[in-house]
Amino acid sequence: MLVDTFGRTATDLRVSLTDRCNLRCSYCMPPEGLDWLPKPELLTDEEVLRLVRLGVTELGITEVRYTGGEPLLRRGLPEIVRRTAALAPRPQVSLTTNGIGLDRLAAPLADAGLDRVNVSLDTLDPATFKRLAHRDRLGDVLAGLAAARAAGLAPVKINAVLMRGINDHEAVPLLRFCLEHGYRLRFIEQMPLDAQHGWTRENMVTAEEILDRLSAAFDLVPGDADERGSAPAESFLVDGGPAEVGVIGSVTRPFCGACDRVRLTADGQVRNCLFATEESNLRDALRGGATDADLVARWRAAVRAKRAGHGIDDPTFLQPSRPMSAIGG
Length: 329
Prior knowledge:
Blueprint: E1 2-3, E2 9-10, E3 12-16, H1 45-58, E4 63-67, H2 77-85, E5 92-97, H3 102-112, E6 116-120, H4 126-133, H5 138-150, E7 157-160, H6 171-181, E8 184-188, H7 207-215, E9 220-222, H8 225-228, E10 234-238, E11 244-248, E12 261-264, E13 269-271, E14 280-281, H9 283-287, H10 292-304, H11 324-327
Parallel strand pairs: 3-4, 3-12, 4-5, 5-6, 6-7, 7-8, 8-11
Antiparallel strand pairs: 1-2, 9-10, 10-11, 12-13, 13-14
């Protein structure tokens, strides 16, 4: 198992397949984009699958979520999903995506064994989408959502980040849209993970603000706290249920004490927290001839060093040098 010194066990593996993205969302990267990782530094499909296999068969990983950047840009994604789903014991296999291209790939991914998807959608207004993402692609995202639902990738979850003065008035319309189409909405507080390092607490729309806005239009009843477990989202039944909405207060309502996640970057670094400033290099060991036992030992040591919390409220907090697109959600 992957256990840290505070007794937390990592069972949820987030694997970034690329740092590239076809959007330029302002809370993640500048409009001109970033310098992408050179291809030789990225893990190959076989290297990804070897590490995932070790995580599942040797280290107790029960869920594998492929992320990016934008994972749909990875040409070998369907085969990666197929071979992951074929592992024993079989992990749950999920995907976090911006939805562009999902209209073509939802059915093949479902056939390969993908269980569900999380799709980022921050606005329903085309002009606002273009302002936030610097691309006019809202129609593609909506088509991808519909294709995921048709392919049975349920529950189709939508992740939304509200930005003050830009889309913070859309909390209620977004929830109405999700209720109408059978999607499960989760609002996420904006985190200090942008490449520009422009995040400020004052500009962040908090979980409390989001709930206040939703409560003005819907009857929200908190879900069972005992059933939440390690889930990052606080769930609320909407108008008596069964539909629900989630709020992830990563900054103002941290859930570090129950965290069960570990991350593998596209270039083969283990990160035990989104906000970690240290990484453990499995890629070089893997390419240097390390045995499975060697890689397992390195991975265990990396997770053992996990800190108690993300430390955003600590005066000494430093934003990680890698932006979200290079870490993997």
